[in-house]
């Protein structure tokens, strides 16, 4: 073990000791340090999971955030990288079993958070020429790293919008969410970033299948085969996807 690794392990050990103590620490400086860490953790999760906080309430959210910190310490100094498993942690609380949609609502918050943190990528316009030069089964379409899909058994988009928009519009989405929850209607949606803020929209079965195939590395031809029996028009989708900032580049499958 190098000296740097040894120091990091020592710091991790100290942090674990400080956070796992159930009683106030005897050293006032360490007690202040612990409270600062807990406050930073709560604030970080508030930033990453704004909808989840609204759903469970500020006080309960802060309690869950503190408990989560004690169970899963951050593995880097960047608080923005910490919290991926928080939605499942919250959904696993016994007092919240009547709200099974919380985990997916939290996942949506996390995907939006990652989307806005993703590096900027300019669409490679020149790569579009490969569409006419390369067999579609030897062609791969890469989406930007900010693009993500979420399929849920719950109306997560309506729930999200009910907590984000004006009172009149929010009420419309709350009503829609209640109806879909009663009818057990789920939603599939796209997370993307045309500029600097993440955006959301619903996905059809065809487009969801298409995007999932592309994300798994399937060739353009292979992905089109998967939506052949669905209502999907590549020639219509392509310009819309470019406008929304979904496309990164086309590459040959044999290109590293």
Please write out the topology.
Blueprint: H1 3-20, H2 28-48, H3 50-56, H4 58-71, H5 86-91, H6 102-117, H7 130-133, E1 139-143, E2 148-152, H8 156-162, H9 167-182, E3 187-192, E4 199-202, H10 205-215, H11 220-226, H12 234-244, E5 247-252
Helix pairs in contact: 2-4, 3-4, 3-6, 8-9, 10-11
What is the assembly state of the chains in this entry?
A: single chain
**Main sheet makeup:** 3 strands, antiparallel
The strands making up the biggest β-sheet line up spatially as 2-3-4
Number of strands: 5
Number of domains: 2
Sequence stretches where pLDDT stays below 50 over 5 or more residues: 3-10
- First-last Cα distance: 34 Å
Query: What does the overall shape look like?
Result: globular
Provide the residue-averaged pLDDT: 89
Count of helix runs:
12
Strand content: 5-15%
Helicity, as a percent range: 40-55%
Integer-rounded radius of gyration = 22 Å
SSE class: mainly alpha
Can you describe what's shown?
The chain is mostly helical and 256 residues long. The chain has 2 domains: 97 residues, no CATH class; 134 residues, no CATH class. It is built from 12 helices and 5 strands. Strand 3 and strand 4 form a beta hairpin. Helix 3 packs across helix 4, helix 3 packs antiparallel against helix 6 and helix 10 packs antiparallel against helix 11. The N terminus is likely disordered.
